[in-house]
Design a protein that fits this description.
Largest sheet: 9 strands, mixed
Strand content: 5-15%
Strand order of the largest sheet: 6-5-4-3-2-1-7-8-9
Shape: globular
Oligomer: single chain
Number of strands: 9
Helix content: 25-40%
Length: 371
């Protein structure tokens, strides 16, 4: 339990950010459509280009939107605005491999210098010595290594290379890159928080245990991420799911429309990270400021539809994601995003499993308030 202290950071007790967190959950609980609060978690897509054709991802075959790289000036304008908001955490990933963006470490450092904490995800294929050193010398706070398969046979089926990048794909290269990266991190005494992540799906059942065995001498966290059906819109991907589909049409109201801002590479703001093809948008930056977009008529209408019932939001009607239980809602008030991101991946804490919150809720006799 004392590990909790290592997750504290400059945002945890910031008065401005604490007040905003309380306001976010309060406005969510009150089901408001026009918000005074501002999202504390920001997803920004550096690029939607990718060098892998992962079988559980809609990017290789289903994504029809134009592919591109975020302009650095556009990005800096976003961060300049976010600096003056209670936003806490910028995650530089949406669809695509973030390391394909040649200015990615500059993007990391710029956000950090503006007071934001920064996370990123990578598939590890491009983590050569030069790029690894740049990342470890950057001001990145949190890195997810997406390592499905964990053996040559299964990894190469799940995460095949695409085109010219086939040479850097494959488990042998990725495993070598990760070992070298972790050794370099140890040598440089970097405090970068690293999560080795797999996805819970058919054909990938034992990958997380294999990863734990391979990398057990390193100070990293491990996560077996629930399967993402992308709103249930891609039949071939749905077939890989190990999720138990919720049957209750009145399940807990999703909190994302009240606390998450997702921006694609060209400045379009979408309702959720699962909108892989920009199926709907709130607005576009810099045609509108991020604050204006957050309370645009489209955004407010989206919240109203969610409150009236998820069945009324076409893309969300088949989504398996549930909202937070009572215990999780209290945690979202008290703790900053970075704290929660690190804490929930800590193998040494029993809080990391959703069942714990549900159990406490039952013991307290608390009924679901946000249907």
């Amino acid at each position: 339990m004392f590990n909790i202290f290592k997750f504290l950071n400059r945002n945890t007790f910031s008065i401005k950010k604490v007040l905003n967190r309380f306001k976010v959950i309060s406005e969510y609980a009150k089901k408001k459509d026009e918000l005074e609060s501002f999202p504390n978690m920001i997803h920004i897509e550096p690029t939607n280009h990718c060098n892998l054709g992962c079988i559980m991802c809609p990017q290789p075959t289903e994504m029809k939107r134009v592919k591109g790289m975020m302009n650095l000036d556009l990005y800096k304008s976003m961060i300049d605005e976010l600096q003056n908001t209670p936003a806490e955490f910028v995650y530089l990933h949406q669809f695509g491999e973030s390391l394909l963006h040649k200015k990615i470490t500059e993007m990391v450092d710029y956000a950090s210098e503006k007071g934001l904490q920064v996370g990123m995800s990578t598939n590890g294929t491009l983590l050569n010595e030069k790029i690894s050193e740049k990342i470890l010398n950057s001001k990145l706070d949190f890195l997810t290594l997406s390592l499905d398969g964990a053996t040559e046979e299964s990894y190469d089926k799940i995460r095949p290379g695409v085109g010219v990048y086939s040479k850097v794909a494959g488990w042998k290269n990725v495993e070598k890159n990760v070992f070298n990266f972790l050794d370099m991190r140890k040598k440089m005494k970097s405090k970068l928080h690293i999560v080795a992540q797999t996805i819970s799906m058919k054909g990938n059942e034992n990958a997380i245990e294999v990863l734990k065995s391979k990398f057990n001498k390193y100070d990293i966290s491990f996560s077996n991420k629930p399967f993402n059906e992308w709103g249930g819109k891609v039949e071939e991907i749905n077939e890989l799911s190990t999720n138990v589909q919720p049957t209750d049409p009145n399940r807990i109201l999703c909190e994302k429309p009240w606390r998450l801002l997702t921006i694609t590479w060209n400045g379009e703001v979408v309702p959720c990270t699962r909108y892989f093809d920009n199926q709907d948008t709130y607005g576009k930056f810099p045609e509108m400021s991020l604050k204006e977009i957050w309370n645009s008529e489209k955004a407010k209408n989206y919240r109203k539809l969610h409150v009236s019932g998820r069945k009324n939001v076409d893309y969300c009607s088949t989504c398996s994601l549930d909202g937070p239980n009572e215990v999780e809602r209290q945690a979202l008030k008290v703790f900053d995003v970075m704290f929660l991101e690190k804490f929930m991946y800590d193998d040494n804490t029993f809080f990391r499993h959703r069942k714990f919150g549900t159990l406490i809720e039952k013991l307290l006799g608390r009924k679901k308030k946000l249907q």
